[in-house]
Amino acid sequence: MIKKLAKYINGLWHLCIVSALGMIVEAVCELSLPSIANMIYEKCAAVSGDPNAARDVKSYVIKIGILMFIMAVVGLCGGLATMKASSVVSQKFSYRLRNDMYKKISDFSFKNIDEFSTSSLTTRMTNDVTLLQNTLMMGLRVLVRVPALLIVSAVFAFSINAKLSFILVVMLPIMIVIVALILKFGFPMFQKMQKKIDNVNRVVQENLIGIRVVKAFVREDKEKEKFHNASDELAKQGAKAAGLVVTVLPILMLMMNVVIVYIYYKGSLDAANPNVKMDVGQISVLASYIVQVLMNIMMVSMLMLQLTRAKACGDRVVEVLDTEIDI
Predict the structure, then answer these.
(1) Closest to 311 in 3D by CA, of 187, 196, 197, 189
(2) pLDDT, position 84
(3) Which of 6, 113, 260, 312 could tie 191 with a disulfide, CB 3.0–4.6 Å?
(4) Quick one: CA dihedral 280, 286, 287, 292, positive or negative?
(5) Distance (Å, rounded) from C-alpha 88 to C-alpha 11?
(6) What is the reported pLDDT for 129?
(7) Dihedral sign for Cα atoms in the order 56, 57, 61, 67
(8) Which pLDDT score is estimated for 52?
(9) d(CA 113, CA 115)
(10) Which of 175, 171, 227, 173 is CA-nearest to residue 201?
(11) Is the dihedral of CA 198, 203, 204, 205 positive or negative?
(12) CB neighbours of 293 closer than 8 A, spacing ≥ 6?
């Protein structure tokens, strides 16, 4: 499926590279800010109790503040470049894909159309392609950012305090299990959801095509009942799929907050222990990097959920493109 759809990005790889580079720039700037801010704390702690050093500290804080502002602006420019490039790539991808699908469907015989049904073909050209477009845009923005932030944040965290950062080694297998469960249970749910959308489109299409017959035989109430049944089935299936997201997110947030509490608790004990060389600023920076790691793992989990639905839609789209026309 991926090989089949990848050809619709041909000629756009330079924009993909721009998107990746912009995201790397944003990630580097974002990761550097906690460490730069800690330099201010260390400077103030070094000259505490010296009234003559107040002027030097003030100028130092202004210089570091300007540096942080510049880093923030550079990161913003990188983020804007990524958003622009990813939007252009995803829009052109969906345009090309939808155009090819339309040309292919236009050549279908009645037998080919009956194999899918008109309602299903409509859903595949609209809803399915749009979801693939959104997934591509999200992937270009996240797939580069997440590994970079994850790896660099973990390295910085272990360099500050390896003992406290070891909790990441404990949390990672739990996160992997959650992602695996998402992939296992999410894919069938979203496949069924797309079929329910097909069914709703079919009921609406039948009603519109046969509107004269419906009115002539006074079948409005029956048609309304059919639509409500199809709509209710879609709502129930959508609630199940959304329930997976609603369940996973609070669990990940709970785990993240537990880790943050643990970091501050153990860090305060280490800061109070004269035998451990760790101050309050390092605890704050360490907590920032730990949060970065956990947030990026959460983003991976949500991206996997999006990819699960995109896989279901991609299979349906490729099925149309691979259909052999019998005339």
Answers:
(1) 187
(2) 92
(3) 312
(4) positive
(5) 12
(6) 92
(7) positive
(8) 63
(9) 5
(10) 227
(11) positive
(12) 149, 150, 153, 154, 157, 168
DSSP per-residue letters across 17-72? HHHHHHHHHHHHHHHHHHHHHHHHHHHHHHTTT-GGGHHHHHHHHHHHHHHHHHHH
Residue 90: its pLDDT value, please? 92
Sign of CA dihedral 268, 272, 276, 280: positive
Which stretch of DSSP H or E encloses residue 144?
Answer: none
Per-residue DSSP letters for 215-273? HHTT-HHHHHHHHHHHHHHHHHHHHHHHHHHHHHHHHHHHHHHHHHHHHHHHHHHHHH-
**Residue 258 CA: distances (Å) to CA of 150, 170, 240, 291:** 19, 13, 28, 11
What does the alpha-carbon distance between residue 263 and residue 247 come to, in Å, rounded to a whole number?
25
Residue listed under structure tokens 């983003």: 299
Q: Classify burial at 54, counting beta carbons within 10 Å of its beta carbon; exposed 0-12, middle 13-18, buried 19 or more.
A: exposed
pTM: 0.73
The region, left, alpha or beta by phi > 0 then psi within -120 to 50, assigned to residue 211 is: alpha
Q: How many residues in the chain?
A: 327
265-271 long-range Cβ contacts below 8 angstroms, 24+ apart: 266/164, 267/161, 267/164, 270/161, 270/164
At a CB cut-off of 8 Å and minimum separation 6, what does 30 contact?
Answer: 75, 149
What contacts 114, CB < 8 A, 6 or more positions away? none
3-state SS, residue 10:
coil
Mean pLDDT, 10 residues at a time, over the chain (327 residues)? 85 89 84 78 67 70 87 90 92 93 89 83 88 88 77 77 78 76 75 83 84 85 88 86 74 80 80 69 76 77 76 86 84
